[in-house]
Specification:
alpha/beta, Rossmann fold, Pantoate--beta-alanine Ligase, Chain: A,domain 2, three-stranded antiparallel beta sheet, binds adenosine monophosphate
């Protein structure tokens, strides 16, 4: 595996006309990231992983400071997976070209995480814009765990870059709690609580699939979570194609954001 600390060096060495799969991450790698990398390895000739903790997508300074950083372990994992290239760019290089960094969301997109984390997706899209301008991968692998991010990135790059987005399914621990780098910040007991939430939401999803009239019970579910001392930021049903509120039995998805001891987790079913 070749490790690059700058786009310049990466571009000199790597021919992006070749069949290259790109897996952008913020590091602290887990089974979710690993599944994306394996998918890229299976479709593409070469795989490029990036580790970049993007400061502008954190709307709270403390959240950025506390975000898990595990570069040494990450490198070991990536070598084991036979990843070809790893890019760890510096903030100064990513933010050099200010013109690529001014992104605005339209009003209809300011829902779910975009509503509760102002500036978050503007930061995400700015970095994706910069990455795809500087490197031109054929494929980019993104997880459905961050469903709204996937949705916004897909729309954003549609008429701008030829990179094809490959959505990858959410990997869960024993079928319930989704793997997340933020899980590294949780105690064993916190993990239990988070698992409890995902089990409840998952059950609600399957209940709705059977009988959509139960949609009325959404508030009840939220109350149950709050009663268990969980801070629920949002729990909403949305259309899985455009994230609008026009939902029915076959097009809905459940989105949740909640806090466990100041650690913010998101999921969707
Ligand atoms: P992150 O490092 O959190 O920015 O995530 C990097 C990529 O991994 C994103 O495309 C995420 O959607 C994806 N990802 C994170 N967690 C999971 C998971 N549990 N299953 C599948 N993909 C995931």
């Amino acid at each position: 595996m070749i490790i690059f600390k700058s786009f310049n060096k990466l571009n000199k060495k790597v021919n992006f006309k070749a069949n290259i799969g790109f897996v952008p991450t913020m590091g602290a790698l887990h089974n979710g990231h690993i599944s994306l990398i394996k998918r890229s390895n299976s479709i593409c000739k070469k795989t490029l992983v990036s580790i970049f903790i993007n400061p502008s997508q954190f709307n709270k300074k403390n959240d950025y400071k506390k975000y898990p950083r595990k570069v040494e372990t990450d490198i070991k994992i990536l070598k084991k997976l036979k990843v070809d290239y790893l890019l760890i760019p510096k903030v100064s290089e990513v933010y050099k070209n200010k013109n690529n960094m001014k992104i605005r969301l339209i009003k209809k997109d300011k829902v779910l995480c975009a509503k509760y984390r102002p500036g978050h997706f503007e930061g995400v899209l700015a970095v994706i814009n910069q990455f795809l301008t500087l490197i031109k991968p054929k494929y980019m692998f993104l997880g459905q765990k961050d469903y709204q991010q996937l949705h916004l990135i897909k729309n954003f790059i549609k008429n701008k870059f030829f990179t094809k987005v490959i959505p990858c399914k959410t990997i869960r621990y024993k079928g319930s709690l989704a793997y997340s780098s933020r899980n590294f910040l949780l105690s064993k007991n916190d993990i239990k609580k988070a698992t409890y939430v995902s089990k409840l939401v998952k059950k609600f999803y399957y209940d709705l699939k059977k009988d959509f009239k139960k949609v009325r019970k959404l508030k009840e579910l939220k109350r149950k979570l709050i009663k268990n001392n969980l801070k629920v930021e949002y729990l909403e049903l949305r259309n899985k194609v455009n994230l609008s509120k026009k939902i029915n039995r076959s097009n809905f998805k459940i989105f949740i954001s909640f806090y466990i001891n100041k650690v913010r987790l998101i999921d969707n079913f």
